[in-house]
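Let us begin with a simple case.
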Amino acid sequence: MSVDPFLVDRQGDTERWTLNDPASRNALSDTMVLGLYEAALRAQRDPSLRFIVLDGAGGAFSAGGSLGGFASAIGQALAPGEEDPLVALNRGYGDLLHALCELPQLLLCVVDGAAMGGGFGLVCCADHVIATRRATLGTPEVTLGLPPAQIAPFVWQRLGDAAARQCLLQGRVLRAEEALAVGLVDELVDEAALDASVRARVQALRRAAPAAVASTKRLLQRLRVRVPDLRDEAAIAFATALRGPEAAAGLSAFAKKHPAPWAQEPARAGAGSDGGGKT
């Protein structure tokens, strides 16, 4: 029996969008990304919808991008003149991030468990983020030999330059309290109180008039013009890296639970010698 990887539940003027592939910790498959993107485009045209709650099933928000469809391309160079299908696939995820940021509704992300890589990027598009105390949020791409390409502008917008560099260039994983401190998370709650906290936050947000919210979000979105649209460049950077030797080595090491080659300290000159310059 197949499971729908993306669920939509409408209750009055509120929709709950659920990433629903617990076996993969809700990794962002092509099907899931497409479902999210189509839901965002539909929501942009729905004036009766005021609130969107985005969460993940099974004790995780999202483990990040799914490499299932990319597996055969890891470390494999393109033939001369061949068009890379990975570019269009990765750009599709960038389209999703832009569509989420352009929603006229208030978008709440609810993070319970892990929000990694692409999942971290989704969180950066939210207007309000509620996390449980067991949540962890990270951008591990560079530790795997990949650039966090599509999410980089959104992480930068959410956290500012200094904190974004700490996350994106170091592959940091933030505990819930650390994510609250840097402004990625807005509200921390106990796991048992999560559903009640989400309902209370939606109720509190009803004080804001929907047309005024939509207008304000459009104005805030205009501020993003200072950040270039990097979707094409990011897709090329990701596809190139995935086909390169670092990604092949990094992802292989990750699968084997070994450190990546670049994570090991190089041998010092003369180490292990017998004192006469011979080894």
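The second case is a distinct protein. As before, the sequence precedes its structure tokens.
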Amino acid sequence: MAPLHKDLHLSAEFLAFLRGGCYSQVMLESAASRLSAAFLKEDYVEGAHEALDKIDGWLKELEDNMPLFSTSWTTPDTFDAINAMGFMKELKRDLLWFADRADAALVVPNLAEDRQSTKLLAAGVLRSAAARFSYIETLNEIFLKLKAPERAQQFAAEAPEAKGFLQTAHTIIDIFSDDNPYSEELCERLRIEALLVPSSMRAYAHDARVLLHVYSKEFTYELAEIPPEEAQGWFNMKIPAVAAGYWYAYRFTPQDCAHWVSVGIRGAPLAAYWRRAGFAPEAAVQWIQQGVPPIIAVEWARAGFDAQRAVAMLQKGITDPSKAPRNRDGE
């Protein structure tokens, strides 16, 4: 089977990401409505709906092997391409705006007494999950229609987990749609769940930057919007600007990045999930190698089990660490 033409590939990646971002805006507005929240302006989704209509048309053309972009250009060369870049710029601005709002909500001392901040965090969890699910689903569908089954399968494999996160996020919205007073325990659990929302929004914004500058000769730290005084540290550690932008979005320093990469964990989101769970790089990699996710690893590690021993218990059907057999010393 012939490889997918690079113009089709570029157009597919751009449109899938843009569609996921705009879909996440629509889902954010839907969540705000379900929560009776007031953190969005009334016409918030008008631009997203306009963009989605255009994107659907461009996707139809892509199915007929009519790419939106050409890798031979030096700058967007058609009205539609320029229009798409405009939508991407608006999406980037909105992602950064929401990241700042989520950051502010996360530091509210008592979320149970600040219902608007609580609702914003709940909606942020849904937005993040919706963006990822839409991106994966759209690329799977596009590559199938472009007769690129190997690429489609890559995203099809990620779809169940992404769908699960989206379903969980909808459940969170339902929980906080209740008019009853919020419990402090429930709000603190939400705070932990939403802890990476601002970073994921900034990582999506960095994705947008990379796509917006696809025709730049070099993607620099300046294009990554890393301040000059901080960019030097990334340069000194020989971390390229594209990669640095993702680690920077998740609030890792160049030294942090090098530490995680040194143990084999090269993705900033993965490192961030393990750091949120309280694992150092050397500890996290042990659980990753055993295929145990953070949410499960943290329970077993807290109970004193290492990764290998925990997996042995799980394979025996023991899912509760407190019910796992101990040695004679009670260890």
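The two ends are 56 Å apart (CA to CA). The chain has a mean pLDDT of 96.
Keep these points in mind for the review questions at the end of the chapter.
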